[in-house]
Design brief:
The structure is a homodimer.
Chain A lengths: L5 H8 L3 H16 L5 E2 L13 H12 L14 H15 L8 E4 L1 H13 L5 E6 L4 H7 L4 E6 L9 H7 L4 E7 L11 H15 L7 E5 L22 E6 L12 E5 L6 H14 L7 H9 L7 H17 L12 E2 L8 H9 L3 E2 L1 E2 L9 E4 L4 H6 L1 H12 L1
Parallel strand pairs in A: 1-10, 3-4, 3-5, 5-6, 6-7
Antiparallel strand pairs in A: 2-8, 7-8, 9-12, 11-12
Chain lengths: ~400, ~400
């Protein structure tokens, strides 16, 4: 007897690589002890939230216990938080964003599904550079959208603008980018982004339906060596920015994010009203109020980034000493090195045999490479050195 | 230039009546002062959360400030909370529910969309008794499902089983019920439910795809005069129960709910794994962790129900004195009286002229009646008496 939908059944059969590694990791940890496994498979921010988190939550406890203290809030978010986000995003994006152009969402994931629901007709295409966060496919697939990845250019993984332009059809509704990038750690350059904005404007001339450029930016706060993540809204009137506080405030479990539209976009109010409605009718209703109040209070604070930078340098040393080739990540907390031997799944299996967990590039639509999250304690990175060397050695003999 | 999807545009044009009344109410409150408007249009629980809420939040502040304190949690919910819910639901539902059969969701709304995504093929039909919570249509419509309401029987609004059986086709995938009911306040009787369970079992004999009976139960805790809300899981192996803590703990803004499946259901593990996946890929990822911890700590507590009962009696008195006919609600916090004159929209307009806000039955797929939420202060109910009388008088002259 069939209990689940065919498309969902197919998605389950293709359970994501990240998930598979998670299960494999759980087995290894059970067998060998967690302290003997080096797990680089998960992007779960493990450094403490900002010090004021405790104090803010204590103060929220008083108001939460009042009538309506934790009651419904407007679907688009607490008005004061939307105002604060508008100020925050105006500065970050070099564009005069107003509260009406910001919708508070259940994380970046909720922002994406609410947006896709609001704009996609069945059969619409969504372009993204590969490698890419594999859930993008499911996010647009719920509403009949089709993800079309376009391989980025190694070794530094800037998007391939010529191939992206060639991939645009009448059905292309959205181009989605993610910078600093998961899984490559690449920050898209101002030159690349300017060309992308020009492409979007060119396509939109005379078009009946808008082509949107959407930037998914949960790692904007995390750029190394003084690198600048260029703002998105100045690139084109058809731009939107979304993000979350999962990584910047280490509160991934609270599910608080946002989506903001370019104030110059045609019909911007209609679009944001639609996103507010789909945010409600998809069942989010509103982002959780405690999380909203917490993120609002901590909006201009952040976790200690130097911790991530030290880990990045340690990881780079371990990889270099093992003879593994990689581009140094400019942002986020991932390395995306070449798989020694060229077969990413084989190399990840070789790492597994050393109790080292990584995710093959195949899981991000980009075989031949593998992803390491360095959102782990430095001791784990140091401990992994022998494992990487042994795995490389195994593949060379 | 078209910026939003055609189906979404249509939904926006049909903005819900509740939303329209909300906007109308905001205008009136601005014009006359909030204290001069009697707003019965919203189901926002306004009585304080349980007294321990403050203390629980204070204690959560300590753990939240630790590394990973607010990090990702498993997509199906905190394991300890699922275990606690399994015990809680086993007692409530008279069935041995295990943690594996419970998924924690972002409220009841998130439970419904995750479930519909997991089971619906495009073109599938969802039956529900009318009047009904109008968002059900959008919840299943996102995934190609079609809501087919079947009018319930006045004056007490038990579902019309004969008409429901006649409405079942090969494409019927789900029957959804809501008891205690929004908007009628009706509690479905054991006799009605037993017949419904038998109908579901009959349809499922020899069927290739399961027909599910889903009970949406956010108001289970709120039954008056010692009324019993019969358990759902004993009715058929094809049953699921979902609910939230929005009303029982007055934390509607936190978005914490659950869905639980009958342990006897064929392929129950596959179904709950699918719901766990759609909960992730729809962008919920996990219900907010602070809300989960709060609901877990308060699972066996509740708001003061006597407040709602007193309001119910006051409201009944006001309506009776105005000569308005109604069935006394057995549960939830709504009245669904007959519209004097028979035209619900006309009567709601007449109430509006008295600064009294209600929602026409048309907004719930059931014209000729109107909904009053008595989740308001008793003073508001008392103050509304003259308005109801005047509105009735207007329509009679």
């Amino acid at each position: 007897m069939r209990v689940i939908a065919s498309q969902v059944q197919a998605q389950m059969a293709n359970a994501s690589w990240i998930r598979k590694m998670f299960e494999k990791g759980a087995e290894l940890k059970k067998q060998f002890g967690a302290e003997n496994v080096c797990d680089f498979s998960l992007g779960n921010p493990d450094i403490p939230p900002p010090p004021r988190t405790r104090e803010v939550l204590m103060s929220l406890a008083d108001s939460a216990a009042q009538p309506l203290g934790l009651g419904y809030c407007p679907n688009a978010g607490l008005p004061a938080f939307r105002e604060a986000l508008a100020v925050f995003l105006s500065a970050q994006q070099h564009a005069p964003v107003k509260a009406a152009q910001v919708v508070v969402t259940c994380g970046a994931a909720g922002a994406l599904t609410s947006f896709f629901r609001a704009v996609l007709e069945p059969g619409d295409e969504v372009l993204c550079p590969a490698p890419y966060f594999v859930e993008y496919g499911a996010y647009c697939g719920h509403f009949g959208g089709v993800l079309k990845p376009v391989p980025a250019l190694p070794p530094d993984f800037q998007p391939d603008l010529a191939s992206m332009e060639a991939a645009v059809t009448d059905k292309t509704r959205v181009i989605i980018i993610n910078s600093p990038n998961n899984p490559t750690g690449c920050i898209y350059s101002q030159a690349t982004l300017s060309r992308l904005g020009a492409l979007v404007d060119r396509v939109n001339v005379g078009r009946g339906r808008a082509l949107f450029l959407v930037s998914d930016e949960p790692y904007r706060f995390l750029a190394y060596d003084g690198a600048v993540v260029p703002p998105i809204l100045p690139l084109s009137p058809f731009t939107l920015v979304l993000g979350s506080f999962s990584k910047s405030l280490s509160l991934a479990g609270e599910r608080v994010g946002y989506i903001a539209a370019n104030p110059q976009m045609p019909e911007v109010d209609l679009l944001m009203n639609a996103v507010t409605m789909t945010n409600r009718t998809l069942g989010f209703v509103n982002a959780p109020v405690l999380g909203q109040r917490l993120a609002m209070a901590l909006l201009n604070e952040g976790v200690d980034l130097s911790v991530y930078d030290r880990r990045r340098r340690s990881m780079a040393k371990v990889l270099a000493e093992a003879g593994i080739r990689f581009a140094m990540p400019q942002g986020a907390f991932y390395f995306f090195p070449e798989a020694p031997g060229g077969d990413d799944q084989a190399f990840v299996r070789a790492l597994l045999a050393q109790n080292v967990l990584a995710v093959p590039g195949s899981g991000f639509g980009y075989p031949g490479y593998f992803r390491l999250s360095f959102s782990v304690d430095e001791a784990v990175i140091a401990r992994s050195a022998a494992g990487f060397k042994a795995a490389v050695g195994l593949l060379q003999h």
